[in-house]
Prior knowledge:
Helix content is 46%, strand content 8%. The protein contains 22 helices and 8 strands. It has a 4-stranded mixed beta sheet, sandwiched between helices. Strand 6 (273-283) and strand 7 form a beta hairpin. The chain is globular and about 75 Å long. The chain starts with a strand and ends in a 7-residue tail after the last helix. This is TTF-type domain-containing protein.
Amino acid sequence: MERYFKRKSPEPLITTTNNISGGNVNMSQPSSTPTMPKLIDLKELHSDPSDRKRILDYHPNQRDEIRRTYILRGPTRPEGVKTDSLFCLPCYLFKDQISRKGGGDAFILEGFSGWNKLHERLDSHVGEVGSIHRRAVKNCDALMRQNQSIVVALHKQSDITKNEYRIRLNASIDVSRYLLNSALPFRGHDESENSFYRGHFLEMMKYTQNQNESVQKVTLKNALRNNQMVSPKIQKDICHCFAQEILKSILTEIGDDVFALLVDESSDVSKKEQMTVVLRFFDGTCGLIKERFVGLVHVKETTSLTLKLAIDSLLTELGLSLKKIRGQGYDGASNMREFDDRFNEVNSELLTCMAALDPRDSFGAFDSLQLVRLVDFYPDDFSSSEKIAIERELEIYIDNVGEDERFAHLNGIGDLARVMVQTKKHISYPLLYRLLKLALVLPVATATVERCFSTMKLVKSDLRNRIGNEYLSDCLISAIEKEALAKVTNDDVIDRFQKMKTRREQL
């Protein structure tokens, strides 16, 4: 039950009226036909319910796709929500479809905030078998099991058809992986049947077909024209799946730990201002500092407020808490360095305190007073009792590692963190280890963001200057994070690809 609820604020109820009364239509006056809602970009869907519309206010042909997008995002608690209330995700998605009756919208519109009556109201909301909530939960599960949808039911598949579809989809995924890894364009200037070169994607699909007997048997000409898995939209969907799987692996690496932001902005070939966002974090499993590119954001202007809002939006979309950021770094205009950065006025003292962690020369720079002062720079990471406890822990720590030969020839705090993990001393000295990680993730001079822009110039070139912002970001994530791309399996991509929307074929 708990996973279906979010602490969010709702959208006001929007209703529509018509000119039908008592079953008779007044023919003497022109009828007022309700305006059909416009199709929207799914990227514009808000995480905070106070900014989102009711499901019935979206275009009928897009409602299931919107529902599926919210389900794939999963329950979240965005930063800066406008009210501390409890909301039910399944009921938001399906209550209007199940019951058009009024009332019972506390968990959908107003939000429930009577925390002293929480369990009583939750039990009442969930109800017995057949209640609106239970039916909404079943509808969520059924929506994600596409083999039960009407579209699929009308398109019965044999095992042979499913196998042919999988082969075609795998071929498209393999070609997409190669082009993404090489930062090559997919489309061609002339993709007609009579063209001598129809673009990298179609030409490589043709080559794959000629070289692979299994693909040749399900030749694209024998498949339905709308089921060949080679259309530009299919190509973009596959690229998006690769990018999302890579981001998923990066977020798994970070876990619940702290991270720093490395941000830079530059103009692309179309003179658009693009901002790269790189996460810097310490990976305790291997004891290494890592920097991972997580997206490109188009900004219309480069003011501090605009850039900060763009960063906040991207992190919220990724499901990262802004509270875990430790010292954002920016390589562009100096005024950007000032936003939300508590280290500006105390940089010198901060670096002096950090130097006390240096293990070189047999911990010659160690100073417990400086390290206790360093804790004061992180009030959100250490409680008052921990600030007292770390003094005693530091005394035991320096006495222990000073006599341990494994810590005798370390070169910097990076080596210290790595050896602490290897020797399990990060468990024995958790407060010191936490302080060490916070020092390690502080932004330093790095070429990572510059490499991102170099790759952007390869992806968005003069001949490819009309590529969309989201598609550009997806391509860059795969082109830059090549190691993560190599670990993404075809089955991972297929699973996400099938869940993105209702597909004609099911696996």
